Give the backbone structure.
Amino acid sequence: MKYQINNFKTTPQADLVSALKKKYKLDKFEYKILLKSVDARNKDDIHLVYNLMIDTNKKLNDKNITPYKEKNYSLEYKEYKGEKRPVVVGFGPAGMFCALYLARCNAKPIVIERGSKIEIRKEKVNDFLKNKVLSPNSNVQFGEGGAGTFSDGKLTTNLKDPLIAFILYEFYKHGAKEDILYESKPHIGTDYLEIIVKNIRLEIESLGGEFYFDTTFLDAKGNKNLDVTAVNNITNEEYHFNTDHLILGLGHSAKDTIRHLYNDMHMNLEQKAFSMGVRIEHPAELINKSQYGKFSKYLPTAYYKLATHSEERGVYTFCMCPGGYVLASQSDNETVVVNGMSNNDRGSFNSNSAVLVEVKPKDFDKGSPLDGLDYQEHYEHLAYKLAGDYRAPANLVKEFLNDEVAKELRSVKTTYPHGLFLTDLRGCLPDYVIEHLKFGIQEFDKKLHGFNYPDAILIGIESRSSCPVRIIRNEERISSIDGIYPIGEGAGYAGGITSAALDGLKTAIKIVGEYSDKCRKI
C-alpha cells in the first residue's frame, strides 16, 4: 500500500530512514521524497520537514497520512498542421521550452541563436573571465541556454501553475539531479545546466528541429506571412526563412534587436520598471551561521531572500547564490555588469546576492519606450570608466554606509575574476539607488543578522536583472505585427528561468492549438 505522509519532521542531523522506522514502527518499506524544506524560524529548534511517499505492507493511520496519488508529469501533444515551420529566435529558457514543445508536436522548429552552442560558448566565456577577451555575441548573456546557464540555476518562482511540475521534470529528465523535484527551493547549478541545455537541443534535433548558432536575427517583413532574415556572425552568410510563426525569445540583453523592432519594424513597445544595484559578497560561513546557528554544519549552504520598501521604492535581494561566485556579465565592450553564479554543490567560500533598487519609468522617461535601455547603458559605461578597465567598482559595507571609501579589502576576499576598484559607488549609480541601498542593507540586517557585516563587499553594477522594455502582445500572445510572438524576459513577461520557460511553453501550446486536430502523449 502506498501512502503519503505530510509534515514529517526530523532534526537536521537525523537519518530519515531511521526516523521513519522509529515513528511508524516499520521494518521493510520503500519511500520517495515528495517535498523537502528547512524550518529555520526558531534557530534553537531547526527541523527538516518532508512530504513522503511510503510503500509498505503495514497499515498506517495518522492525521498526516493519506492514500498516495502518483503525480502526472506528462502533457498532451497536438499534431502541428501548419504548412510553414515556426522560427524561434533565442535559445534561453523561453525559447528552449517553446522549441521543445513544438518539436514534440512535429512542427520541426527552426531555432536561431546569436551565440554559440554550449561547448564553444563556455570556451568564450572562460576566455573573457581569464583574459578579458569579450565576444559580443557569445558571452554570459548570449548563447545556448541563455543568461540563466551562467547562474545559480534557481527554479523558484512566485507563479502557481500546474505546468511548472512539467518544466521541473523536463530539467530532471535532461540531466538535473532528482532533488529539484522535491526541494522547496530547487536549483540546478551552472555545471549541470551546461549538460541539460545540450540534451534538450539534441532531443529537438532528433525530432526534426534545426539550429542556426552564431546567427543573429536581422529582420522580418510582412504580416502573418513573414520573410525572416538572419545572418551568421562568423561567415556573414545570410539566411532567409518564410513562416507564419516567429517567436522572439530575445533575452533581456538583446538591446540592438529590441531597438530594431521599435525603430525599423515599428512594433509597439512600452517602458517597464526594472532595477539596479550591486552584488554583495559575504563569507558563506557567516550566512550559514546566521540562518542555521549551531545546525549549520548539518545543512546545505544557506539561502536567503529579503525585501523591504521605503515610501518611494522597493529594495530587495535577487538571484542569491549560496556558495557562489560573482561574474563579469557584460555583453558590450567598455561596460561593467555583474551577476552571480553557483555550481550545483554551492561550494565556494563566499555567498553573494544582488541588492537591487526599483527603477521606475519616471526616472528615465524622455518620451521613448527605449529610454530605459539608454539609462541602463549609461551607468554600465560609467562603471567601466571609473577604473578604465574591467575591474568592477566596489566598496565595503562599513565605508559605504558612512559615505567613505575603503582603502583595501579586509577579511572578505572577492570571487570576481577581473579584480576590484575601490571607489565611491555614486560614480556609477544614481543617488536615489545609493540611498536606498543604504536603507536596504540596514533593514536586511534586522532580518538576517550579519548582513551589514563591515567587511562584506559591494560590487557594481548589477543592472540586467530584467529588461526595461515590454513588447506589447495581445491575449493570443501576438505582438502588433501579426505572426510575431514575443516571449520570456526580453519581452518583459518573465523574471527567471522557470517563469521564462513557462511563458515559452504556453506560447507554443497556443500556436499548436491553431493548427491541430488530434492529441498524443509522449
